[in-house]
Design brief:
- The protein has about 230 residues and is α/β, with parallel strands linked by helices.
- It contains eight helices and seven strands; from the N terminus they run ααααβαβαββαβαββ.
- The protein has a seven-stranded mixed sheet with strand order 3-2-1-4-5-7-6, with helices on both faces.
- Strand 1, helix 5 and strand 2 form a beta-alpha-beta unit.
- Helix 1 runs antiparallel to helix 2 and helix 4 crosses helix 5.
Length: about 230
């Protein structure tokens, strides 16, 4: 086994241990945030070492929704922005007006150092407390790797996320394919929003290669807000 393979195995072990700390069953929201506090400095480097492209995939999906000549006018909120990898990728697709929402100030500080967003909202998204952002503020919302088994954005919070998107705007979610029970909970909320004519599904896709090291599948949802 050469050095590269050994490094890959070690990184896989680290990522799976991190997932258990951040997302394992019954992990509380506050505990997951403490994990992000300690990981902020190395988080992005670790994902890039794993050849993660989810931030680029997210930006590519949004770019497909808007012709290049209008992208500089589109206003986007990146929910669960973290260190700003999606923001950077969106800039690479010629989007200019991108804001960040994340509850972890340490993670957002890394994004601020590289000027990846215009406005930074240090807020959580949860069913009990609506975001301070007004209804219909954004043309599009992105969520990349923000949904988990526990300790992260709960499925019911999607209702508040849809609220801040303009009529005709989009919600783009790129995530690791979660356990069936968790996935069912998420899609039950999405289906209820469709039934209430709050949004309509544009695309749902399951695909391999979400993370090259861990071998996870990914899932993409694209919705247009009504």
């Amino acid at each position: 086994m050469d050095t590269t393979e050994k490094q890959k195995l070690k990184l896989r072990e680290t990522l799976l241990e991190m997932r258990e700390q951040f997302e394992g069953n019954n992990i509380t929201y506050s505990k997951s945030q403490k994990c992000y506090d300690t990981l902020a400095e190395t988080y992005e480097e670790m994902l890039l070492n794993a050849n993660a492209r989810t931030h680029e995939i997210t930006a590519e999906i949004v770019a497909d929704l808007y012709p290049s000549d209008v992208r500089n006018k589109v206003k986007i909120l990146d929910v669960g922005a973290g260190t700003g990898m999606v923001g950077s990728a969106l800039h690479g697709q010629r989007f200019k007006h991108i804001d960040a929402l994340d509850p972890n100030p340490n993670m957002l500080e890394k994004a601020k150092l590289q000027n990846r967003y215009e406005t930074y909202f240090i807020e959580s998204v949860n069913p009990e407390e609506s975001s301070s952002i007004k209804n219909g503020t954004y043309d599009a919302v992105t969520m990349c790797g923000t949904l988990a088994e526990s300790g992260h954005i709960p499925p019911e919070a999607i209702k508040d996320i849809v609220r801040i998107v303009k009529t005709g705007g989009y919600m783009v979610i790129v995530n690791r394919l979660l356990k069936e029970e968790t996935l069912n909970d998420i899609e039950a909320v999405m289906n209820s929003l469709e039934a209430d004519k709050k949004m309509i599904k544009v695309n749902r896709k399951v695909w391999p290669g979400y993370n090259e090291v861990t071998g996870d599948f990914g899932i993409t949802w694209v919705y247009r807000v009504l």
